[in-house]
Design goal:
heterodimer, A: 79 residues, alpha+beta, 33% strand, B: 266 residues, alpha/beta, eight-stranded mixed β-sheet, 8 strands, 17% strand
Chain lengths: 79, 266
Protein backbone atom coordinates (compact mmCIF):
# COMPACT_ATOMS: atom_id res chain seq x y z
CA UNK A 1 0.00 0.00 0.00
CA UNK A 2 1.39 3.40 -0.88
CA UNK A 3 1.40 6.49 1.37
CA UNK A 4 1.65 10.12 0.41
CA UNK A 5 3.79 12.39 2.59
CA UNK A 6 4.98 15.95 2.50
CA UNK A 7 8.72 16.55 2.77
CA UNK A 8 9.88 19.99 3.86
CA UNK A 9 13.21 21.52 2.98
CA UNK A 10 14.53 22.86 6.33
CA UNK A 11 16.78 25.36 4.58
CA UNK A 12 14.20 27.03 2.33
CA UNK A 13 10.84 26.03 3.80
CA UNK A 14 9.64 24.69 0.45
CA UNK A 15 7.83 21.36 0.34
CA UNK A 16 7.34 18.47 -2.04
CA UNK A 17 4.81 15.63 -1.96
CA UNK A 18 6.26 12.13 -2.18
CA UNK A 19 4.46 8.90 -2.88
CA UNK A 20 6.05 6.00 -1.04
CA UNK A 21 5.71 2.26 -0.87
CA UNK A 22 5.96 0.42 2.43
CA UNK A 23 9.32 -1.04 1.44
CA UNK A 24 10.91 2.30 0.55
CA UNK A 25 13.63 3.27 3.03
CA UNK A 26 14.30 6.49 4.87
CA UNK A 27 17.56 6.94 3.00
CA UNK A 28 15.68 6.65 -0.29
CA UNK A 29 13.42 9.46 0.88
CA UNK A 30 16.47 11.53 1.86
CA UNK A 31 18.18 10.96 -1.46
CA UNK A 32 14.98 11.54 -3.44
CA UNK A 33 14.27 14.85 -1.74
CA UNK A 34 17.90 16.01 -1.85
CA UNK A 35 17.97 15.18 -5.55
CA UNK A 36 14.69 16.99 -6.21
CA UNK A 37 16.05 20.18 -4.62
CA UNK A 38 19.46 19.67 -6.26
CA UNK A 39 21.13 19.86 -2.88
CA UNK A 40 24.89 20.02 -2.53
CA UNK A 41 26.57 16.71 -1.96
CA UNK A 42 26.67 16.27 1.80
CA UNK A 43 25.04 14.56 4.73
CA UNK A 44 21.32 14.94 5.43
CA UNK A 45 18.93 13.57 8.01
CA UNK A 46 15.16 13.20 8.03
CA UNK A 47 12.93 13.91 10.98
CA UNK A 48 9.34 13.10 11.79
CA UNK A 49 8.17 15.26 14.64
CA UNK A 50 10.81 15.08 17.36
CA UNK A 51 12.33 11.86 16.12
CA UNK A 52 15.24 11.38 13.77
CA UNK A 53 14.50 8.54 11.36
CA UNK A 54 17.14 5.86 10.84
CA UNK A 55 18.36 5.52 7.26
CA UNK A 56 17.86 1.79 6.69
CA UNK A 57 14.35 1.75 8.18
CA UNK A 58 11.50 1.11 5.76
CA UNK A 59 8.43 3.31 5.60
CA UNK A 60 6.54 0.55 7.39
CA UNK A 61 9.06 0.08 10.20
CA UNK A 62 9.59 3.82 10.65
CA UNK A 63 5.86 4.23 11.10
CA UNK A 64 5.53 6.73 8.27
CA UNK A 65 1.86 7.13 7.48
CA UNK A 66 -0.33 8.90 4.95
CA UNK A 67 -0.23 12.72 5.23
CA UNK A 68 2.82 12.72 7.50
CA UNK A 69 5.05 15.79 7.46
CA UNK A 70 8.74 15.00 7.24
CA UNK A 71 11.66 17.42 7.21
CA UNK A 72 14.99 17.13 5.40
CA UNK A 73 17.78 18.72 7.44
CA UNK A 74 21.42 19.16 6.38
CA UNK A 75 23.74 17.53 8.92
CA UNK A 76 26.50 20.03 9.66
CA UNK A 77 29.95 18.42 9.64
CA UNK A 78 32.18 21.49 9.88
CA UNK A 79 34.07 22.56 12.93
CA UNK B 1 31.60 29.28 65.34
CA UNK B 2 30.97 30.65 61.86
CA UNK B 3 33.93 31.97 59.89
CA UNK B 4 33.83 35.76 59.90
CA UNK B 5 33.36 37.36 56.52
CA UNK B 6 35.33 40.30 55.11
CA UNK B 7 33.87 43.08 52.96
CA UNK B 8 34.51 42.43 49.29
CA UNK B 9 35.81 38.87 49.76
CA UNK B 10 33.35 37.58 47.19
CA UNK B 11 35.22 39.37 44.45
CA UNK B 12 38.47 37.59 45.26
CA UNK B 13 37.17 34.22 44.10
CA UNK B 14 37.12 33.96 40.29
CA UNK B 15 34.40 31.29 40.43
CA UNK B 16 32.18 33.11 42.93
CA UNK B 17 29.44 33.91 40.42
CA UNK B 18 29.46 30.33 39.09
CA UNK B 19 29.02 29.00 42.63
CA UNK B 20 25.77 30.95 42.79
CA UNK B 21 24.32 28.80 39.99
CA UNK B 22 22.82 26.13 42.19
CA UNK B 23 23.46 23.00 40.13
CA UNK B 24 27.01 23.80 39.05
CA UNK B 25 29.55 21.99 41.21
CA UNK B 26 32.60 24.22 40.83
CA UNK B 27 34.87 21.97 42.88
CA UNK B 28 33.95 18.97 40.74
CA UNK B 29 34.68 20.92 37.56
CA UNK B 30 38.10 21.87 38.93
CA UNK B 31 38.85 18.15 39.33
CA UNK B 32 37.60 17.28 35.85
CA UNK B 33 39.54 16.46 32.70
CA UNK B 34 38.23 17.49 29.28
CA UNK B 35 39.58 16.28 25.96
CA UNK B 36 38.96 18.71 23.09
CA UNK B 37 39.46 17.14 19.68
CA UNK B 38 39.88 19.75 16.99
CA UNK B 39 41.33 23.24 17.50
CA UNK B 40 39.48 25.08 14.76
CA UNK B 41 36.66 27.54 15.26
CA UNK B 42 34.61 25.23 17.47
CA UNK B 43 37.70 24.13 19.39
CA UNK B 44 38.61 27.76 20.13
CA UNK B 45 35.16 28.60 21.45
CA UNK B 46 34.86 25.35 23.38
CA UNK B 47 38.27 25.83 25.01
CA UNK B 48 37.35 29.37 26.01
CA UNK B 49 34.11 28.22 27.64
CA UNK B 50 35.80 25.29 29.38
CA UNK B 51 38.51 27.39 30.99
CA UNK B 52 36.06 30.12 32.01
CA UNK B 53 33.82 27.42 33.52
CA UNK B 54 36.68 26.32 35.74
CA UNK B 55 37.54 22.95 34.22
CA UNK B 56 40.85 22.02 35.82
CA UNK B 57 42.50 19.99 33.08
CA UNK B 58 42.12 20.51 29.33
CA UNK B 59 43.85 18.60 26.54
CA UNK B 60 43.56 19.96 23.00
CA UNK B 61 44.34 17.82 19.96
CA UNK B 62 44.81 18.95 16.36
CA UNK B 63 47.29 18.16 13.59
CA UNK B 64 46.77 21.34 11.57
CA UNK B 65 48.47 24.75 11.39
CA UNK B 66 46.91 28.21 11.65
CA UNK B 67 45.98 29.88 8.32
CA UNK B 68 44.72 33.39 7.61
CA UNK B 69 41.31 31.99 6.69
CA UNK B 70 40.93 30.87 10.33
CA UNK B 71 41.17 34.38 11.71
CA UNK B 72 37.53 35.43 11.15
CA UNK B 73 36.24 32.93 13.69
CA UNK B 74 39.04 31.63 15.91
CA UNK B 75 39.15 33.73 19.05
CA UNK B 76 42.64 32.76 20.17
CA UNK B 77 44.57 32.85 16.91
CA UNK B 78 46.53 35.94 15.92
CA UNK B 79 47.93 37.16 12.60
CA UNK B 80 51.35 36.22 13.92
CA UNK B 81 50.20 32.60 14.29
CA UNK B 82 49.15 32.58 10.65
CA UNK B 83 52.46 34.14 9.54
CA UNK B 84 54.42 31.58 11.56
CA UNK B 85 52.06 28.73 10.56
CA UNK B 86 51.87 27.79 14.26
CA UNK B 87 50.29 24.51 15.21
CA UNK B 88 46.68 25.13 16.20
CA UNK B 89 46.77 22.85 19.24
CA UNK B 90 49.86 24.58 20.65
CA UNK B 91 48.71 28.13 19.92
CA UNK B 92 45.31 27.45 21.45
CA UNK B 93 46.79 25.75 24.53
CA UNK B 94 49.17 28.68 25.10
CA UNK B 95 46.35 31.25 24.98
CA UNK B 96 44.01 29.21 27.16
CA UNK B 97 46.77 28.88 29.76
CA UNK B 98 47.05 32.69 29.82
CA UNK B 99 43.41 32.89 30.89
CA UNK B 100 43.86 30.73 33.99
CA UNK B 101 47.34 29.75 35.09
CA UNK B 102 45.95 27.20 37.54
CA UNK B 103 44.32 25.20 34.73
CA UNK B 104 46.43 22.37 33.33
CA UNK B 105 46.37 22.78 29.56
CA UNK B 106 48.12 20.57 27.04
CA UNK B 107 48.26 20.94 23.28
CA UNK B 108 48.90 17.74 21.34
CA UNK B 109 49.87 18.00 17.68
CA UNK B 110 48.51 14.79 16.25
CA UNK B 111 45.99 13.23 13.93
CA UNK B 112 43.10 11.96 15.98
CA UNK B 113 43.72 8.49 14.58
CA UNK B 114 47.20 8.52 16.14
CA UNK B 115 46.04 9.73 19.54
CA UNK B 116 47.03 7.54 22.45
CA UNK B 117 44.24 5.48 24.00
CA UNK B 118 45.10 6.98 27.39
CA UNK B 119 43.86 10.35 26.17
CA UNK B 120 40.35 8.89 25.97
CA UNK B 121 40.67 6.66 29.01
CA UNK B 122 41.83 9.43 31.31
CA UNK B 123 39.21 12.00 30.26
CA UNK B 124 35.96 12.67 32.06
CA UNK B 125 34.36 14.13 28.95
CA UNK B 126 35.33 14.37 25.27
CA UNK B 127 34.29 17.32 23.12
CA UNK B 128 34.23 16.68 19.37
CA UNK B 129 35.09 19.84 17.43
CA UNK B 130 35.90 18.11 14.17
CA UNK B 131 35.37 18.93 10.52
CA UNK B 132 34.82 15.54 8.95
CA UNK B 133 32.77 12.40 9.37
CA UNK B 134 35.65 9.91 9.41
CA UNK B 135 37.29 11.59 12.39
CA UNK B 136 33.91 11.82 14.14
CA UNK B 137 33.39 8.09 13.74
CA UNK B 138 36.88 7.40 15.09
CA UNK B 139 36.29 9.51 18.19
CA UNK B 140 32.80 8.07 18.61
CA UNK B 141 34.13 4.50 18.53
CA UNK B 142 36.85 5.25 21.10
CA UNK B 143 34.47 7.05 23.44
CA UNK B 144 32.05 4.13 23.25
CA UNK B 145 34.86 1.64 23.82
CA UNK B 146 36.16 3.47 26.90
CA UNK B 147 32.72 4.50 28.15
CA UNK B 148 33.51 8.22 27.95
CA UNK B 149 30.75 10.80 27.38
CA UNK B 150 31.10 12.50 24.00
CA UNK B 151 29.60 15.90 23.24
CA UNK B 152 29.94 16.37 19.50
CA UNK B 153 29.42 19.64 17.68
CA UNK B 154 29.17 20.51 14.01
CA UNK B 155 28.48 23.63 11.97
CA UNK B 156 27.65 24.50 8.41
CA UNK B 157 27.06 28.13 7.52
CA UNK B 158 24.33 29.35 9.91
CA UNK B 159 23.28 25.82 10.95
CA UNK B 160 24.74 23.66 13.65
CA UNK B 161 24.18 20.61 15.79
CA UNK B 162 25.16 19.14 19.12
CA UNK B 163 24.81 15.46 19.94
CA UNK B 164 25.27 14.02 23.42
CA UNK B 165 26.49 10.42 23.59
CA UNK B 166 26.71 8.71 26.98
CA UNK B 167 27.93 5.16 26.46
CA UNK B 168 26.84 2.49 26.56
CA UNK B 169 23.09 3.07 26.70
CA UNK B 170 22.69 6.21 24.60
CA UNK B 171 22.61 6.13 20.81
CA UNK B 172 25.96 7.10 19.35
CA UNK B 173 26.97 9.25 16.38
CA UNK B 174 26.96 6.23 14.10
CA UNK B 175 23.36 5.47 15.07
CA UNK B 176 22.32 8.85 13.68
CA UNK B 177 24.11 8.46 10.33
CA UNK B 178 22.80 7.18 7.02
CA UNK B 179 24.07 6.52 3.50
CA UNK B 180 24.56 10.23 2.76
CA UNK B 181 27.12 10.41 5.59
CA UNK B 182 29.08 7.45 4.32
CA UNK B 183 29.02 8.75 0.74
CA UNK B 184 30.30 12.11 1.94
CA UNK B 185 33.08 10.32 3.78
CA UNK B 186 33.97 8.19 0.76
CA UNK B 187 34.22 11.22 -1.49
CA UNK B 188 37.04 12.54 0.68
CA UNK B 189 39.04 9.40 0.12
CA UNK B 190 38.14 8.80 -3.49
CA UNK B 191 40.91 10.99 -4.94
CA UNK B 192 43.71 8.69 -3.84
CA UNK B 193 44.17 5.04 -3.16
CA UNK B 194 45.87 5.79 0.13
CA UNK B 195 44.43 6.56 3.51
CA UNK B 196 45.49 10.20 3.21
CA UNK B 197 42.71 12.74 2.95
CA UNK B 198 43.23 14.47 -0.38
CA UNK B 199 39.97 16.17 -1.17
CA UNK B 200 39.16 18.68 1.57
CA UNK B 201 36.02 20.63 0.78
CA UNK B 202 35.87 24.11 2.26
CA UNK B 203 32.67 24.46 4.28
CA UNK B 204 30.80 27.70 4.87
CA UNK B 205 31.27 28.89 8.45
CA UNK B 206 30.64 31.98 10.54
CA UNK B 207 31.39 32.82 14.13
CA UNK B 208 27.93 33.46 15.61
CA UNK B 209 26.78 29.93 14.79
CA UNK B 210 30.06 28.51 16.04
CA UNK B 211 29.64 30.41 19.32
CA UNK B 212 26.12 29.08 19.85
CA UNK B 213 27.08 25.47 19.15
CA UNK B 214 30.25 25.59 21.27
CA UNK B 215 28.33 27.12 24.17
CA UNK B 216 25.78 24.31 24.07
CA UNK B 217 28.55 21.70 23.88
CA UNK B 218 30.21 23.07 26.99
CA UNK B 219 26.95 23.47 28.90
CA UNK B 220 26.07 19.84 28.18
CA UNK B 221 29.57 18.84 29.30
CA UNK B 222 29.11 20.73 32.55
CA UNK B 223 25.81 18.91 33.12
CA UNK B 224 27.55 15.57 32.59
CA UNK B 225 30.42 16.48 34.90
CA UNK B 226 28.12 17.84 37.62
CA UNK B 227 25.93 14.74 37.74
CA UNK B 228 23.05 16.30 35.81
CA UNK B 229 22.83 13.74 33.00
CA UNK B 230 19.06 13.61 33.25
CA UNK B 231 18.99 17.22 32.11
CA UNK B 232 21.17 16.62 29.05
CA UNK B 233 19.94 16.84 25.50
CA UNK B 234 18.13 13.68 24.40
CA UNK B 235 19.97 13.29 22.10
CA UNK B 236 20.55 15.76 19.33
CA UNK B 237 20.00 19.48 18.96
CA UNK B 238 19.73 21.05 15.53
CA UNK B 239 20.05 24.81 15.28
CA UNK B 240 19.17 26.99 12.31
CA UNK B 241 20.28 30.54 12.98
CA UNK B 242 18.79 31.92 9.79
CA UNK B 243 15.29 30.60 10.42
CA UNK B 244 15.50 30.95 14.24
CA UNK B 245 14.77 27.27 14.72
CA UNK B 246 16.01 25.02 17.51
CA UNK B 247 15.01 21.35 17.48
CA UNK B 248 15.71 18.70 20.08
CA UNK B 249 15.56 15.35 18.33
CA UNK B 250 15.46 11.85 19.71
CA UNK B 251 17.85 9.47 17.97
CA UNK B 252 16.77 5.82 17.99
CA UNK B 253 19.49 3.35 18.90
CA UNK B 254 20.48 1.41 15.79
CA UNK B 255 20.25 -2.34 16.52
CA UNK B 256 22.72 -2.93 13.67
CA UNK B 257 25.29 -0.49 15.07
CA UNK B 258 28.45 -2.45 15.95
CA UNK B 259 29.05 -0.18 18.94
CA UNK B 260 25.85 -1.33 20.62
CA UNK B 261 26.04 -5.06 20.13
CA UNK B 262 24.22 -6.89 22.88
CA UNK B 263 22.23 -3.85 23.90
CA UNK B 264 19.16 -4.34 21.76
CA UNK B 265 15.99 -4.10 23.70
CA UNK B 266 17.51 -2.14 26.57
Amino acid sequence: MSVRVKVRNAETGSTVDMELEEENTVQEIIEGAAGYWEKDAGAYVLRKGKKLLRGPQTVLVAGIANSDDLELIPDPEGG
Amino acid sequence: MNRPIRPGEWDEDRMERSRRVGWIDVDRLRESKALVIGAGALGNEVAKNLVLSGIGDITIVDMDRVAFSNLNRCLFFREEDAHLRSFKAEALADRVREMDASCKVRGIVSKVEALDEDAFRSSDVVLGCLDNIAARLHVNAHCCHHGRPLIDGGTLSTSGKVQVVIPPEWPCLQCSMNRTHFRTMERRYSCTGSDTVFFEPKLAAEITTTSVIAAIQVRESIKVLCGQRDRCLHHLLHYNGLNNQVLELEVPLDPECPLHSGQQGK
